[in-house]
Amino acid sequence: xxxxxxxxxIAVNINVNGKPYSRQVEPRxxxxxxxxxxxxxTGTHVGCDxxxxxxxxxxxxxxxxxxxxxxxxxxxxxxxxxxxxxxxxGKLHPIQKAFGDSYGxxxxxxxxxxxxxxxxxxxxxxxxxxxxxxxxxxxxTCRCTxxxxxxxxxxxxxxxxxxx
Amino acid sequence: MYPRSFHYxxxxxxxxxxxxxxxxxxxxxxxxxxxxxxxxxxLRFANPEHLVDLNFIPATSFIKEDSGALHFGAMTRHAxxxxxxxxxxxxxxxxxxxxxxxxxxxxxxxxxxxxxxxDPSGDWANALITLDTTIHCxxxxxxxxxxxxxxxxxxxxxxxxxxxxVTAVEVKIxxxxxxxxxxxxKRSAPVYPSASAxxxxxxxxxxxxxxxxxxxxxxxxxxxxxxxxxxxxxxxLNDKTIATAAEAARAAADPQPDMRGSAEYKRQLVVALxxxxxxxxxxxxxxxxxxxxxLYA
Lengths: 164, 297
Fold this sequence. Notes:
A: DNA polymerase, domain 1; 2 domains; 15% strand; B: alpha+beta; Uridine Diphospho-n-acetylenolpyruvylglucosamine Reductase, domain 3; Enolase-like, domain 1; 5-stranded mixed sheet; 11 helices
């Protein structure tokens, strides 16, 4: 591997779940690998690794992105939220609670990504229609095909977050 | 999956990006939204030695109206166009932006990147070729403009020089009495469409004064279905003339069989998409608000 002889590393400062992480990374390191390996936050999953399945979805400055399709250097200076950042003071986020209460998961592999896509949806649209929910999670694949309970979880999360 | 190692350069201005690419030479590439390029890098279909990142350049993402046209900064994300009230002045643009891949990809992918990539299955080039679209470019010798029909040369090939980039996309607002629609058929949200159709019609009563019809994913570039346009121009629009136009579009399509379907299947898709897009375009030309939606298998 001659290319490892002179590995160029770049300093990045990324705020993950409210905590600053300063690391030296190779430019080719993907954001998902940075989160899992440099920050030891393994809640963000790698599924297809081809921009399809959405298991790696995180929020970047509040917007859902596929962290397998961004380099860590591109997230320099940004605010990233991963599934680990949803819980506050030992209390589950209403989205997490709704996924549990509605059995909105089976194997759980896609769940962190789905919850973060749900987060963007509900922060923009607290009362989404079924069609809007479908559109919002179209980039998240559940290989167990448990979509009906995922819809119910998102509807429940929306209701709980409005406090009704 | 890791791409091959590359050197990373962060441009502070468009001018700096152009001069960086010139200095770094043929082994360098621009990185815009990355939603097409990064998957290619990971699969090692593309192996640039240097990437010049455009994402940190200020004032490259904007949507504004000026002199009867909408102007989009090259780094404007698909999602920004999807949610823009201004962009809805040209309904085709909303149809296109709101249907590209999924939320996550639309949050990152850019209109300038999509056009410069010139993927034969990309959405923007097909939607915009039915409109009067001008690409604003910047190279070492300064700025120039290229009409979209002269910009896309072939699959993955544009009129851009190696060290030239897109700075903005200018789309003329069609006149009153003109309506358009863009429809794509996709097997699922994150994938490229199997086929797509863009239509822009100008009506005077029931008579079609002008027509532009383009087909996507069924050739090396978006195909203008000129025979289909002729079948409508000057005619009154009814089921028969629309069916004739759709059949002419079938003949204009030049699809390749692949995992998305056989050539015949894609031609059949073209017929259905052109018919539906014409129907939506007609209603919009008459002033109706119609939500277009991409179709899923």
